[in-house]
Prior knowledge:
The strands form two sheets. Strands 3, 4, 6, 7 and 8 form a five-stranded antiparallel sheet that branches. The protein has a four-stranded mixed sheet with strand order 1-9-2-5, with no helix packed on it. Helix content is 55%, strand content 10%. By secondary structure, it is an alpha+beta fold. The longest helix has 51 residues, at 98-148. Among the domains are: 219-312; 315-415, Serine Threonine Protein Phosphatase 5, Tetratricopeptide repeat, CATH 1.25.40; 458-568, Immunoglobulins (Immunoglobulin-like), CATH 2.60.40.
Amino acid sequence: xxxxxxxxxxxxxxxxxxxxxxxxxxxxxxxxxxxxxxxxxxxxxxxxxxxxxxxxxxxxxxxxxxxxxxxxxxxxxxxxxxxxxxxxxxxxxxxxxxxxxxxxxxxxxxxxxxxxxxxxxxxxxxxxxxxxxxxxxxxxxxxxxxxxxxxxxxxxxxxxxxxxxxxxxxxxxxxxxxxxxxxxxxxxxxxxxxxxxxxxxxxxxxxxxxxxxxxxxxxxxxxxxxxxxxxxxxxxxxxxxxxxxxxxxxxxxxxxxxxxxxxxxxxxxxxxxxxxxxxxxxxxxxxxxxxxxxxxxxxxxxxxxxxxxxxxxxxxxxxxxxxxxxxxxxxxxxxxxxxxxxxxxxxxxxxxxxxxxxxxxxxxxxxxxxxxxxxxxxxxxxxxxxxxxxxxxxxxxxxxxxxxxxxxxxxxxxxxxxxxxxxxxxxxxxxxxxxxxxxxxxxxxxxxxxxxxxxxxxxxxxxxxxxxxxxxxxxxxxxxxxxxxxxxxxxxxxxxxxxxxxxxxxxxxxxxxxxxxxxxxxxxxxxxxxxxxxxxxxxxxxxxxxxxxxxxxxxxxxxxxxxxxxxxx
Length: 569
């Protein structure tokens, strides 16, 4: 059959790169196969090709004489002796020399046999020495290969040893060990690949197989322990994730915290994010269920604080935590009768979330104002007592029916007493008589002065506070006449009882009755009293409210509306 003509311009296929070691070359496995089968003739050709590719490899150089010798002994190259030319001597032409030749041949054979025997004896002794040297060298090479982990080379060396000495038990045991270790390293590589792919069950099965057949092999024991830990972590993580997705935040918290105790780096981003959300949601749940129970509120506070450790800037967790802290502190202040501190904390909560703690903030704030006012009244500070009573009166959602009497007493105590004129004493009628003396009745007692209330032209219409993050405080409002029409040209003053700021004067109210006082940032905190002026004189009671706190959770703006009283029209 004609071979196709190759076009020299056709691109040739790129040759694969030559492996670094002969044991990695396919020819090596071919040679190893034939040698293990004892077919040295078949091994000769691929071995010579492999030696040509790796001419400097010491092991191949050492193996070459053995391969060539055994292949030759088994018939390799015998054909070159098969074509030897037949004898050129014609036996018939030399019959006349038969008898002398036979005698000569007999003598020659005797001498030749003697020499051949001597030569064979010498060759046998030399071969034995070479074989012993080769066996020793192969033992050393096999052990070195075994110690260095080159199990393929060890298998070849031990196989060659057993060809030379089939009864060598040490070589047989070494061959079994090398083959077992070669299988083990293949299993180890497979287990590592499964482990890196997080196929924990597959990798664990392989590693346990290695541990059973080769106890103490490399780091198999440590890897088994690591995989079992990963399986436990994965199981706990999956369970915590399931609880989180179902809204079982308390169970999810337990699972995530257990994960962090075992390995803080396991799925760390997901665990931290979901643990924060679990803390926050469970805290909100417990806060709602707690009502005004201090112990349950403290448990909710702990959850919010844990959430803030994971995400310090979260405004929701920060706000809830601050409200609970203020509430719990105010309860302690009320118990210790620290009315000012209790009012400050409760006011911040009330202005932010009046229904906090099951709506108990308003009544507690009312009680604090009233108790504070009672103490002030007892010490003769009637104006301050009135201010506290007024503040208590405007709290929404609280029964304030009992505050009116306290306000009246505080106001009456501040009025200047107006003495009632005493009647002129009159002389008692005389009962004269002769020789008698005169007599008369005693003067009537002087009446006790009574307090006459002084009504004011302007009364409080409404009061409210709110937060303001502008960096300044504001006190403002609207002044109305008796017909609920805005009044212009009315001035209002404000002063801070706590820090002494003021009095600050507003601009005269404009056509819409609006007035405004701007308060510097450092003057805001404290109790502010607001009062209407006419001709520089107060014409209303001083009404007050406390300002201060953070811009989002505090109050920096006070709105006070006034109305003209009808009787002064």
